[in-house]
C-alpha cells in the first residue's frame, strides 16, 4: 500500500534530508547512551522522522539538531512513561539546555496538545484490528516483531495494518485541514487595524 504524500509532507521530507540526516549519528548515540536496554534505536529514529514529516510547519525551527533531539527525547520519554521507567540520567538529560527549541512558546504547546487530542479522537474511530496494531506500534512504540508475537499474527499483517492506520490518520488530518481552510475562507474578513468586518 502506498501512502500518498501531501505537498507539505514532501516539503518536510526534503527539509529532513537537507537539515537532519547529518545529525542522525549524534541522535543515535544519544538513544544508545540514554535509553533503557531493549529500546529499538531504529524505531525511535524512524518515529521521529515520521512525526517531523507529518508536522504542519517546520518554518519555526531555527536549530534543526536541537529540534531533532527534542523530538527523539519526547518519543523516548513517552516510551519510558508508558513503561513506568524513569532512569535519573534520562530525566536529568531532558533538561539539557543545548537541545531546547526556544521558539516553542505557550501557544505552540497548547496547539500541540490540541493536535494530540485531535489525533487521539481519529485513532479511536479506527476499526478495532487496525486501531490495536496502530496503538501498539505508533503510540506504545513496540517493534513489529513484538506486536506480531503478542497478537499471534504474521509480521506482514502488522506492517499492513500499521500502514493502513497511518494512511487513515493522514487522510483524516488532511480532510480536517481542508475543512478548516474552507471554513476560514467562508468567514467574513476584518479590515486591518479597525476590528470592523468588511
UniProtKB/TrEMBL annotation:
Origin: domain of life: Bacteria
Pfam short name (any one): Sigma70_r2
Spans annotated as Disordered: 178-198
Coiled-coil regions listed in the entry: none
KW Transcription (keyword) present: yes
Annotated keywords: Sigma factor, Transcription, Transcription regulation
Gene Ontology terms describing biological process: DNA-templated transcription initiation
GO molecular function, one term: DNA binding
Residues covered by the RNA polymerase sigma-70 region domain: 23-84
Domain annotation RNA polymerase sigma factor 70 region 4 type: ranges: 117-169
Keyword Transcription tagged: yes
InterPro entries: RNA_pol_sigma-70-like (IPR039425), RNA_pol_sigma-70_dom (IPR014284), RNA_pol_sigma70_r2 (IPR007627), RNA_pol_sigma70_r4_t2 (IPR013249), RNA_pol_sigma_r2 (IPR013325), RNA_pol_sigma_r3/r4-like (IPR013324), WH-like_DNA-bd_sf (IPR036388)
Similarity field: Belongs to the sigma-70 factor family. ECF subfamily.
Protein name: RNA polymerase subunit sigma-24
Organism annotation: Sphingomonas sanxanigenens DSM 19645 = NX02
Record lineage: Bacteria, Pseudomonadati, Pseudomonadota, Alphaproteobacteria, Sphingomonadales
